[in-house]
Amino acid sequence: MNTSRRATSSRRNLILTSASVGLLAAMLASPVLAQSGEAKPASDDVVSEIVVTGTRIQTTGFTAPTPTSVIGEAQIQNNAQPNIFATIVQLPSLQGSSGSATNTFSTSSGQQGLSSFSLRGLGTIRTLTLLDGQRVVGAYYTGVTDVSLFPQLLIQRVDVVNGGASASYGSDAVGGVVNFITDTRFTGLKGNVQAGISKYNDNEQGLVQLAGGRSFAGDRLHLVGSVEWAKENGVGPGDFGLDLAGDRHWFTQTTMINRNVTNDGSPQYLMRDNAQPYAYTKYGLITAGPLQGIAFDQSGQPFQFQYGSGGVPSKTAGGAVTGCLPGFCVGGDLSGNVDSGRTLQSKIERKVGYGRIGYDFAEGNEAYVSFNLGQVKTSNQPVNGMNRTGLTLQCANPYLPTSVRDACATAGVTSFQFGTSNALLPNTKVHTDRRQYRVVAGLKGKFAAFNSDWSYDAYYEHGVNKTAIDVDHILLTPHFNQAIQATMLNGAIVCADPVARANGCQPLNIFGGKPPSAAALEYVQPAAGPFQRLRMTQDVASLNFSGAPIDLWAGPLSVAFGAEYRREYYTVRADPYGAGVADRSPNGGSYPADPLMSNLGNNWHAGNYKNGDGVYNVKEAFLEIDLPLFDNDKAGRANFNAAARVTDYSTSGTIWTWKAGGTWDTPIEGLRFRGVTSRDVRAPNLSELFAAPVTTTLPNFFDPANNRNVVAIQNAVGNPNLTPEIARNSQIGVVLANPSWLPGFSASFDYYKIKVDDVVSSLGAAQIVDYCFRNILPQTCSAYNLNNTAGPNYINVQSFNLASIKTSGFDIEASYRWRQPLGLSGNFTLRALATHIRDFWTDTGLPGTVPVDSAGVNQGNTPNWKWLAIQSYENDRFSLTLQERWFTDGNYGNQYVVCAPGTCPVSTANAPTIDKNFMPGAFYMDVGGTYTIRQDVTAYFKVDNLFDRDPAKSPNYANPALYDIVGRMYRAGVRFKF
Fold first, then answer.
1. CA distance 549 to 423
2. CA-based radius of gyration for the chain
3. How much is the pTM?
4. How far apart are CA 26 and CA 936, in angstroms?
5. Which of 242, 503, 530, 869 is the most buried (most CB within 10 A)?
6. How many whole angstroms from its chain centre is CA 736?
7. From the CB of residue 35, how many other CB atoms can be counted at a distance below 10 Å?
8. Which residues make beta-bridge pairs with 23?
9. Percent share of the chain, pLDDT over 90
């Protein structure tokens, strides 16, 4: 690990952390603290009719037509997670969110450990996450926020708006809004200490939280602060082969194998367990020619490789294996498989400090300043080894055993094809360090004007997010390519290339698993590996007013209006070997000039981060009204709600968004109908507009032109000509809220339909190659080179406004609170939430393609049904909570045609044939409880995945977006509040 490049605690970090602790100390110093009032009571966990996030109107009694789920403080506490993200993401309407168990298989994405929400399966970039109704600086240049950086102990509730809200909140609120509401008037002291561990004695967790609040100057000055530390050790990688961390046994190397035959009556794609790639092994394999099938053990001795499927090497130049499928056999020697070396859950450590000072300069009017400092550090291992295939090695290599050199001579060859997992080298580790500095200054309150009461909210926010990514133990490809080409010179083993020798090349014995010398290891895996340094800056100025200036026939006309200015900026730099030599990334120091390196970059096996910068600003204004239509005993009460927002983007011009809807409280007690339709937008983010390439290594990319798997680098680049995505979001629903004939019961049903046009999307690497190979889009042929002799194989991917998304479904939410059940003290509460996705169509907009419905595709994140059910009993002494999480059976893709050999139609790109297309759903049960030791101290426990349910088999190793891949988790802790 190159500790010299690791960011240490900066002076600003120290100052702000000290300020946060000092603020807490100031609040706790006075002996009159015990006489201070308690914190505000937590929101009820039942379906709430108080909706505040889906609108800008603050008039008393107003109910917005957009459905909103509310997670109260009690439910947050009962779920006992070390990160509140894990509680909110369980809501059924959230699909495709990213957390510490996702993005762990990547070296280059830069999004490891991000905790970001995705509503309706539309992606994290189409869900707006707010803190107290205010924007938060992005944690990466995709613009998504990281909830791990929020002050979590002071959160009173979380409002999840299930529907478009761009007219109220601006860009990104296409799928909806997640708004974290903090207790800005908390008084007292509270804390939480928690520990956890998995059944497999890993993923050890610790959490310490402390918050305090105090009022001064006759209850006009309010100080609130919190500090928290959390650490999850994660679940590390397994060994080569099929081994997983701990004692987990669910991994079977399930693989979707392409036969590349479409018209012989048999399925084109075959699902197989125990798939064995025959292009490499753990310590090396000769993969083509007359010596094909000779493998090497850890000591470097040759042996005959055991192919699965009874395979016999063809010993031809193509390297086929008779009896096996293209690229894979089934069974045999699996010791070289690399996928089991992926981190199941990233290690994550977070530190957060928060402080707020508010002063009531007049009754009902406050000036305030808040600051938030957060740091999140993560680490993960993307995969075991760094498999290299298609290497050409010489028979004269002095490291090659004599018996193999003799076999070369007998066969009359001087070289051979070779593949290896590179198990002799240390495995790659990725480390991220995100630091957020955020300050908000504002005024809010009430005033009288035009014979009515008005409220206002003005604030300025400045946020900075700094991200450092460092990669350890990664191959420097040009050095590796030269180091493995060894020769004898003057009785010593040296690198064969004289230019490489002159520039420090150290030979590497690639045959077997003998540890390389320190010099050779430093040459092929230098301590100074890839790095990226990103700085995101956000500035927001906002002014909003809300009031009811006119009394009409059915009540007051409520109005909200305001304006906002926002500026987003990012700059990023990387090392010259990955980014290329430039003013921002010059050679020098740990990255000296080297004639073997490409000055254009992409010299690392993975983690080729790039330089870049970009900026845009947004000016917008909005108007929202709530018009009462009627209010009488016979017809009930109805309101019409509408809003419009005009937005000017510096990159793409002016665009309008709007919404129109209403509510009808019927004469039937508790029965309400609601509906809304809206035009929403998502502007392209900084990454899509300006980002220099983000690279991803594809270790087993299929080259159809040569019918082989190769290692290739995917470069995703920005497009400054992108325009905003346009969405139409419609919802209609019915609510039954606490009727007198069934007190404590509430339920709602809401149908939704969303259509997003001009979706920013890109052709995938496989699509680019396929469209060229099949001559569908010949222009894609210039975007890749899979036989690159001048550098690494690559595919360039760029975003366009090509696609569209259309989805529909419905949400169901119900709860019942039974007070003093069966005469017992306390309450018994039932709550259930469900989302049904009827369809989820994605149209790429590309020639020769048809829309694809991914509803029910469990390899993705949009199952047909997703449920969350909670049953709890609580009294003054203890509580017990049961929770069930469930989603339905699905498949690998709705486009596949399932058939048996001899019955299959011709397989096409739009309707490919497959032998199996089933991916089971999952049911998880959690149990937790609390015990009140004394009035202000409570002990608690929680067990997640009580039955230790394993994830389903997946051709993508595993799908942590839906399945629990950690296993049973135990947690226990103590909370206190004085």
1. 73
2. 30
3. 0.88
4. 22
5. 530
6. 35
7. 8
8. none
9. 78
